[in-house]
Design goal:
Structural class: alpha/beta
Shape: globular
Order of helices and strands: HEHEHHEEEEHEHHHHHEEHHHH
Distance between the termini: 49 Å
Largest sheet: 5 strands, mixed
Strand content: 5-15%
Length: 302
């Protein structure tokens, strides 16, 4: 069945897979809240980008929240309307928010996707994953600063630069510092994830991934030349709902995160957007103890 009616879609449904980008998740949650029951399980694909905050109107109705650490599949368009190139991940990593039953849900995911599923210890393992919020932001910052040449739209990954790798490693290190302070495991450093210990090695690795090779940079062509497409999700989601949330965790833990601050300050100056989209303090998060309470995390509080 294909339907635009949420009531019809949720009827007799166990799982709702949410693939919407972060910048529309809050509106989605508010719109569906009146028809949400405590039997529904929302699975965010992927789960980072502030989903545990944005989906609160649905969670307040008793629904459970789960999130994939990364997407289960990678698909790229081959011929519009006819075919796609498709790659299945070897393993899924899933986390539950606020004590939801992760074991039975992971077994269900294995059956649904025919892919082994690993249950992560806490939803923070998803929230703090150094994926798009540091990957996209580091590349855009390096691309658009320091007298960037925008005469030609380069490939986002196939033309990846050492400058972007340097920023990415710094952001990754600051994320790992947050994980260390909270005693959060299951968040793998990008040096391990991409099997790259040096800046040149990381650049070579990111340039060589076939599934990413044809992705263009988020730029628009104007009569004056190329300019950043600030409406692209790499900007609207990965800075405001990604990197800024990571920075707020660092601030709540009193951790110095100079690269996060520098990149976010550049984004706000460049876009003129100084409004914080998700404020962790609104959810009572302002210290290590408050993080532990919100996520029901034990390690860093004892």
């Amino acid at each position: 069945m294909v339907t635009a009616d949420a009531t019809e879609a949720f009827d007799a449904t166990d799982y709702v897979f949410v693939t919407l980008p972060s910048n529309v998740q809050a509106d989605f949650a508010k719109r569906i809240a009146p028809i949400v029951s405590d039997k529904l399980k929302f699975v965010m694909v992927p789960g980072f980008g502030g989903a545990e905050f944005l989906m609160q109107p649905a969670l307040e109705r008793g629904a459970a929240l789960f999130g994939f650490q990364r997407v289960p599949f990678i698909a790229r368009l081959k011929e519009y309307g006819r075919s796609v190139w498709f790659e299945r991940k070897a393993c899924l990593q899933l986390a539950a928010f606020a004590g939801a039953d992760i074991d039975s849900t992971c077994r269900d995911m294995e059956q649904l996707f025919s892919i082994p599923c690993e249950a992560l210890n806490n939803y923070l393992c998803v929230t703090l994953t150094p994926s798009n919020p540091v990957l996209h932001t580091s590349r855009l910052y390096a691309m658009l600063t320091g007298g960037a040449d925008l005469e030609q739209n380069k490939f986002f990954y196939a033309d990846w630069s050492d400058a972007a790798s340097e920023v990415l490693f710094k952001l990754d290190a600051e994320v790992q510092a947050i994980c260390h302070a909270l005693k959060v495991s299951d968040v793998i450093s990008l040096k391990v994830h991409y099997e790259s210990e040096t800046i040149p090695a990381l650049t070579k690795k990111l340039r060589s991934i076939p599934s990413l090779s044809k992705i263009q940079s988020p730029l628009n062509r104007t009569p004056q030349g190329l300019s950043p497409d600030f409406g692209n999700r790499y900007f609207t989601c990965d800075f405001e709902f990604g990197l800024d949330i990571l920075l707020q965790f660092a601030e709540a833990l009193d951790l110095d995160s100079p690269t996060m601050r520098e990149v976010m300050a550049w984004y706000r100056r460049t876009t003129g957007n100084f409004v914080r989209t998700v404020t962790l303090a609104d959810y009572g998060i302002n210290s290590a103890e408050s993080v532990c309470k919100f996520y029901r995390l034990k390690g860093a509080c004892h």
